[in-house]
Specification:
- This protein is α/β, with parallel strands linked by helices and about 220 residues long.
- The protein has one domain (about 30-215): Ribonuclease H-like superfamily/Ribonuclease H (Nucleotidyltransferase, domain 5).
- About 35% of the residues lie in helices and about 15% in strands.
- It has a six-stranded mixed beta sheet, sandwiched between helices.
- Helix 5 (about 150-155) packs parallel to helix 7 (about 190-205).
- The protein is globular and about 50 Å long.
- The termini are far apart.
- About 25% of the residues are buried.
Length: about 220
């Protein structure tokens, strides 16, 4: 046995190496210079092992601005659908949107997000769905920083014995609290847009608090 043999580094495809290389530069914590990507996934269900992504919608934000020509939306081909979830997100197997494979969707998504800070509502679910998909194709987990608008919203609430703070807040609740239209609710891109507007309003409230900083926001 050769004890001096170096362990070979796992070889990843070019698309992953290009994505990974984006994180080599120093992070700029000037909040107006941070590119946020707000995203949402629509899925066949909530089991990370057996359920799959049906669509991913995302849009970019920088300095409270959402460029209308910089959005992302893909629909994935899947072999099975749950009728109870179709009632919610409305993505039918026979719909005519162009569909791509899971791997193609992941490649496009990584190209779009680069090293941006990712924002989602109940971000743990969307992050895990993407990570499980990446792992199925032999890739590691996402490297981006994540922010969860449900968690951030609770930071804006005044701590008081008289105020009942819920463990979590739904996207519908945030839309109502911030008077955001729910016209395209339960589509990936529509939910990403609602989340983005809520995120802007949440950050505005957080900025009004003492000692606000981008570093604290990203903790």
């Amino acid at each position: 046995m050769d004890f001096f043999k170096k362990k070979r580094k796992k070889h990843y495809p070019d698309f992953w190496l290009e994505y990974e290389a984006k994180f080599n530069k120093k992070v700029d914590y000037t909040i107006s210079e941070i590119r946020f990507v707000v995203f949402d996934t629509e899925t066949t269900g909530f089991d990370y092992d057996t359920d799959r992504i049906l669509s991913i919608g995302a849009l970019s934000m920088k300095n409270n601005s959402i460029p209308i020509n910089d959005s992302f939306e893909v629909f994935l081909y899947q072999h099975f659908y749950h009728a109870k979830n179709i009632e919610i997100h409305g993505i039918l197997q026979e719909e005519r949107q162009e569909r791509i494979t899971e791997l193609e969707a992941l490649i496009k998504f990584l190209e779009y997000i680069e090293d941006s800070v990712l924002v989602a509502h109940h971000a743990g679910f969307d992050r895990n769905m993407i990570n499980y998909a990446l792992n199925r194709h032999g890739m590691p987990n996402l490297k981006n920083k994540f922010l969860d608008t449900s968690v951030l919203y609770k930071r804006t609430l005044i701590k008081s014995p008289l105020l009942h703070v819920k463990p979590q807040y739904s996207l519908d609740e945030l839309a109502e609290k911030f008077d955001i239209s729910k016209k395209d609710r339960h589509t990936a891109l529509g939910d990403a847009y609602i989340t983005a507007i809520a995120f802007i309003k949440i950050v505005q409230r957080l900025k009004a608090k003492k000692n606000f900083s981008a570093k604290k926001l990203l903790k």
